[in-house]
Amino acid sequence: MLVDSGASVSILRKDFFDSLVLENRPQVMPVRMNLLTATGEASEFIGKVNLEIKLGTHVFKHEFLLAEIKDMAILGMEFLMTNSIDVLFSKGCLRIKDEFITCFTNRGDSSCCRISIAETVDIPPDSEMLIKGMPCGPVIFNEVGLVETNKSFIEKTGLLLARVVVQPNSNIIPLRVANFSTEPVKVYKNTIVGTFEPVDIETLEVSTVSRISCAEIKTEVGIPDHLKCVFEFQRFG
């Protein structure tokens, strides 16, 4: 999903709309408008629909135009202004009332960012859980990165955060947390747990393996006399 402050309307990709469950798919209404691309080319919109969209914990109902576009959806200025959503470019996020939603970027240099808890959760004693985390800064979409804990989180909560490699394709980063104490531990929303650091993925070339001959092993050959005492000792000792 793309937030485009230069778009006056909001657009939904046609094949994504077609993939929705038929019972939940609203009726497509005709529209007489053209989509003007950045290159100046024009194409007709297929129609328009009213859909509910969820951003963070907020649900909005808005009108979307259907078109053949690359992104799943485009949120334009009309959507942002109607729903009082602020785009904070300095922090790389959207602000909806008191909630901040981190935005991903498809370009730019990789950078390390902190990870916080997405929602308050109780970790049972002597257990391991998979919980939701969220980046505290812009992250390149589908970028592979390493999640590492910080010392202060361990000291304050007594919990352990697994060191894992993840590839976030949304605003959620999976976190593996373990509680080895005998008491439940509550971790609160927005608690900083660690960092997300991009890593480079190297493609390994597989070389040709040469065929080698295998010698036949004769199992009927007995144990040499000088080793019999060792086997007897292992069997009875």
TrEMBL record:
<dbReference type="InterPro" id="IPR001995">
    <property type="entry name" value="Peptidase_A2_cat"/>
</dbReference>
<dbReference type="Pfam" id="PF13650">
    <property type="entry name" value="Asp_protease_2"/>
</dbReference>
<dbReference type="GO" id="GO:0004190">
    <property type="term" value="F:aspartic-type endopeptidase activity"/>
</dbReference>
<keyword id="KW-0378">Hydrolase</keyword>
<protein>
    <recommendedName>
        <fullName>Peptidase A2 domain-containing protein</fullName>
    </recommendedName>
</protein>
<dbReference type="InterPro" id="IPR001969">
    <property type="entry name" value="Aspartic_peptidase_AS"/>
</dbReference>
<dbReference type="GO" id="GO:0006508">
    <property type="term" value="P:proteolysis"/>
</dbReference>
<feature type="domain" description="Peptidase A2">
    <location>
        <begin position="1"/>
        <end position="79"/>
    </location>
</feature>
<dbReference type="InterPro" id="IPR021109">
    <property type="entry name" value="Peptidase_aspartic_dom_sf"/>
</dbReference>
